[in-house]
Design a protein that fits this description.
The protein is mainly alpha-helical. It is built from 7 helices and 4 strands. The protein folds into 2 domains: 111 residues, no CATH class; 155 residues, Helix Hairpins (Orthogonal Bundle), CATH 1.10.287. Strand 3 and strand 4 form a beta hairpin. It binds zinc ion (ZN).
């Protein structure tokens, strides 16, 4: 495995500094990634507003179609009613001239039918008018909604444009810093970093409480000591660079204040002084 070779090559005092440069590189790349995501989200937010506006437009089209249908229905009902009224008028004239009871009965029956039909048509016309009124109320509300949505869309577009412009400047600066960080990095470590970056989102994991922060695997005691002395090691489980940051891992610092105050601990600590060779606080395993 490449890791074992690297262990030999990179167990040097200056490696901590080299690794810190990679940590800085990873931070810059993460910031750039977050910013790229934010830039993409501006477009997404505008698209959401556009979709809402489109939906309202579709509903308005449906209402316009329904209104046209109702209007056409009423025109047709009006013609039917007119037809019935003309027939009624004709039957009444015929009734005046009727000679037999049979003729009178038949004409009266026709007149009754015409009246029933006219009443039925009136009811249908009334129902259509009610439906039209309800549709017009919906239409008015949707017009208001659409006006609001158009305003929101314009605002969102303007906000997005401002945000995108600002973030693109920031992103360009991050890319510049990233390129600088890559230039400054140790070429061998950088090659390893790139290889790992292709497999993981974050090639470097911190060691906290003797565990790899990415996969939570315990780091063996000897490696743990070497890492804290500046050696470069890789996680035996996930393969990431392991980086010790005393500011994050406070397990060492936690031992410091308690040691001189405890009478029992004093003797023990005196017998086993803290390891030297590093100005960082060290923890015994
Ligand atoms: Zn790991």
């Amino acid at each position: 495995m490449a890791a074992s070779v690297l262990d030999c090559v990179f167990t040097l005092p200056c490696m901590q500094e080299a690794l810190e440069k990679l940590v800085h590189l990873q931070e810059l790349e993460q910031q750039a990634q977050a910013l790229s995501l934010q830039i993409a989200q501006y477009t997404g937010r505008v698209e959401v507003r556009e979709a809402a506006l489109y939906d309202t437009g579709r509903l308005l089209e449906q209402i316009a179609t329904a209104l046209a249908k109702e209007s056409s229905l009423r025109r047709s009902l009006e013609l039917d009613a007119e037809d019935m009224r003309e027939k009624s008028a004709r039957y009444r004239i015929q009734l005046d001239d009727a000679r037999s009871d049979g003729q009178v009965k038949a004409l009266e029956h026709q007149l009754k039918f015409c009246k029933k039909e006219i009443d039925r048509i009136d009811e249908l016309e009334f129902a259509s008018l009610m439906e039209t009124e309800a549709l017009e109320v919906k239409q008015r509300l949707l017009h208001e909604t659409r006006a609001n949505q158009m305003q929101l869309l314009e605002t969102e577009k303007a906000k997005s444009q401002l945000g995108r412009d600002r973030d693109k400047v920031k992103l360009a600066e991050l890319y510049r810093q990233r390129d600088e960080a890559r230039q400054a990095a140790n070429p061998e470590l950088l090659a390893e970093y790139d290889r790992m970056a292709r497999a993981h989102k974050m090639p470097i994991a911190t060691v906290e409480q003797q565990r790899c922060s990415a996969c939570q695997m315990m780091v063996r005691p000897q490696r743990w000591n070497e890492i804290r002395q500046g050696a470069v090691h890789f996680c035996e489980s996930c393969g990431r660079f392991l980086y010790f940051n005393p500011a994050i891992d406070l397990s060492d610092a936690m031992h410091l204040p308690s040691a001189p105050k405890k009478p029992a601990g004093l003797a023990k600590d005196a017998a086993h002084p803290k390891p030297t060779g590093s100005d960082r606080p060290q923890r015994e395993d």
